[in-house]
Amino acid sequence: MNWQQFLTFNSTKRPWHLPILAGLCVGIPLLVGYYTNHIEGGKLASLAGLVILYIQSNNLVNRMITLMTCGFGIMLSFSVGLLFSFHPMVAPLILSVFSFGVHFCLYQLRFTRPPGNFFFIMVAAMAISLPFNPDKIPERIGYVGMGTMISCVLGLLYSLFTLKKNQTDDITWTPKNQYVNTLESITFGVFVGLSLAIALLFKLDNPYWVPTSCVAVMQGVTTKHIWLRSSQRIVGTLLGLGVTWLIIFLKPPLLVICCSMVALQIIVEFLVVRNYAVAVVFITILTIFLAEFNSVLIADPNKLFLARFIDITIGSLVGAVGGWVLFNERIHYLATRQIRRTRLVLRKKHSPKF
Questions:
Q1: What angle do CA 184, 188, 192 make, to 5 degrees?
Q2: Is the per-residue pLDDT at 142 higher than 50?
Q3: Exposed, middle or buried by CB within 10 Å (0-12, 13-18, 19+), for 316?
Q4: Other C-beta atoms lying within 10 Å of the C-beta of residue 135
Q5: Residues 87, 93, 94, 99: what is their CA dihedral angle, to the nearest 10 degrees?
Q6: Would you give the distance in Å from CA 121 to the centre of its chain?
Q7: Contact 238, 278 (CB under 8 A)
Q8: What's the average model confidence in pLDDT over 72-82?
Q9: How many CA atoms lie within 13 A of 44 on its CB side?
Q10: Could you tell me which residue, 236 or 44, shows the higher pLDDT?
């Protein structure tokens, strides 16, 4: 492995003000939750605020349609997770089927640019790992809905100020063989579901960290890139946990944490397209504050940080294996041949006989 890639910063065409917009979409729900004494609801709304990262088109109408559609998709992902979190045997199967459907449908809709399927699967994994509580389902979905609405409003205002007239889209789409998308979707579904099953089997405290890390690693574009992302995620997580431990040691007030998360989101969006390893350091801090900042974290941070490192390491390794399958030409060839044979058999079986 070339360790220089850990320190190489790539160039990007991403506008400098987009990370600031992302920070506002995450920060505003958090601060509203803090000042209204509904911090847990603010966390859910800020999580949904990440839908702003799907703001890609250079056409105002197309951009807003895409943003609102993705907002609905985030709400659907969260709802599916909540509704099927009632049993540890059902959850991995549902998450597997859902991940397959998300990847398959996004390709059919020609929506393949990053972040792609990541946030839909991440939100579903987080929701399906929550304790099943039917009474809280409408309330939680409502918070997520408010987060998507805030992002849509901010996205509209941002677009009105930044989009130029008569600007055309530069989005390109590379068609694939009809079987390739099916195989990729199956691979995503199998390994995301498997990662959650492993987390539940070992009774990890917050199992959603494992499938989230798995799908993050599988976002790579080649086998080499996926293994690089896996190692970057593990190393970056270790460094991020160390920085988080130092922050918790200082025991900052909750308001300071909320404000810091806005800054962290801005930093993450600035770095993630330039250097993934460095970005993961700040992603780790942000996600721990977003998901774990409570009395347990303050009382025993050493135990919690060790658990998070184990979770992310397992997920990254499962994702690396999934990535190897995803880009293995031999497996693709054999699987495609088997799918074709199955289709021919089914076609002959159901063909009319005279």
A1: 170
A2: yes
A3: buried
A4: 6
A5: 140
A6: 6
A7: no
A8: 94
A9: 24
A10: 44
